[in-house]
Amino acid sequence: MKSYIDLIQQSFEFPTMEFNVEDNQLLFNNVPLMDIINEHGTPLKLTYLPKIGEHIENARMFFRNAFKRHNYKGTYTYCYCTKSSHFSFVLEEALKHNIHIETSSSYDIPIIRELYRTGHITKSTYILANGFKRPLYTQYLSELINEGFNAIPILDNLKEIESYEQLTNAETVNFGIRIATDEEPNFAFYTSRLGIRYNDVLDLYKEKIKPNPRFNLKMLHFFINTGIKDSAYYWSELTRFMFKYCEMQKICPELDSIDIGGGLPIQTSLTSNYDYQQMVDEIVENIQWICNKNNVPVPHIFTEFGSYTVGESGAVMYKVIDKKLQNDKELWYMIDGSFITHLPDSWGMNQKYIMMPINNWDNPYQKVNLGGLTCDSQDFYNTEMHSSDLYLPIFTEDETQYIGFFHTGAYQESLGGYGGIQHCLIPAPKHVLIDRDEEGAIVTRVFADAQDSESMLKILGYGRDRAFVEKKMEKLQEEPRPEEVAEVEEKGAVAKKAEKRQLIQK
Ligand SMILES: Cc1ncc(COP(=O)(O)O)c(C=O)c1O
């Protein structure tokens, strides 16, 4: 019978730049994954940090090439969409490549402040502030603007600008307007709820921005939910957007930029071969063609790639802890983690990832279903992007099988939460960061250990009495007062009683 490596080599061009096999074991960006597992165990999340910079530079190169090819006179600015992954190690890595930032929440702004405090950004870093903004968000943004940060609120509704009228005092306040796109024809709604409808953009400018000598409209923004892809839908939305830009630019000379959002896709299968350069070429060519047709200077182009920045840096590795043949045909490989909690996109949005075994590549293979640890019947994974079946090595009782999901770096914690309470109390796995030193050697560091039960008990409100008593006792040892002694004794008695009750119940 053929081995797993034969299957992969017959189905794909393998090895790839990213994946290789040595001694029967998988390498991810030349990192021997079994070494990492042997050191840290499973389930394990990992982030290969150099990938983040690689993708930022790739995107810059696509735009540089396209600008050269079409003699495009504008500039290109790379922003990172923080909601894809807010982790400090992601932002700090991305910021080594002189990127700018797109935010979507008031809680992003303390992150911006911290990045400024630690010298990762300067006041000239663009902060493109998207999202439907509640008062705290507009207040934080106004404070940044008043202090001279290069923050640009992207207006998402007609009332938002009133906050900046009241809260800003800077000489110049630059704005963007997000224009609501039409959704893809098969979507539940016709027009996106996000942004301002095409018909209202002109009036918003004329009534609220133009009359205010401190206010400038600098940018128009649109985001196509389904991503940048070569479809009639994408091209028609981009064209409509660019015609609006030209119409607005003719009456608003300060308008000189467009933000075409995120949506550059990542590889979800060994077969995907998205032609990034060609797509960027066509976008640039279309923008230029429409501007030329309307006698309008071409805009500076901003993007806010989230998945593309961070997605391919991430992986999750599991051990197969049991094999269950539940009928004559359906074989389950049970993993030591869960799809619902660790990879919520795979469960909630049917998102596919590159999935491969980490070891036993010389073993024969079989069709399997992967089962997660929660009790939810939906906690499984059994198809791939390119195939309706899933194959993994057959392994004996003496062997251990490890598997990996790759390109999982974006949105999983934004959707599933991190370090909180999840289905069946499945803990957040240990997370390891992998980097390269100046000589190119692999350097690893633990970002976080696996979540412990203490942190869950705390979130769930258990053990409060105990904590109260311990804290008071500490204080009492400093200077006991009679009424405090009485109070503590009373609380202690309550806590003791509760503990006793729990023991009895057990
Ligand atoms: C306004 C906006 N910009 C950028 C992004 C990032 O998209 P992606 O991760 O597909 O690049 C999103 C994602 O939802 C978004 O809503």
UniProtKB/TrEMBL annotation:
It comes from the Bacteria. Residues 75-310 form the Orn/DAP/Arg decarboxylase 2 N-terminal domain. It comes from Ravibacter arvi. InterPro entries: Ala_racemase/Decarboxylase_C, Arg_decrbxlase, De-COase2_N, PLP-binding_barrel. Its cofactor is pyridoxal 5'-phosphate. It holds the Pfam family Orn_Arg_deC_N. PANTHER family: ARGININE DECARBOXYLASE, BIOSYNTHETIC ARGININE DECARBOXYLASE. Keywords: Pyridoxal phosphate. This is Decarboxylase.
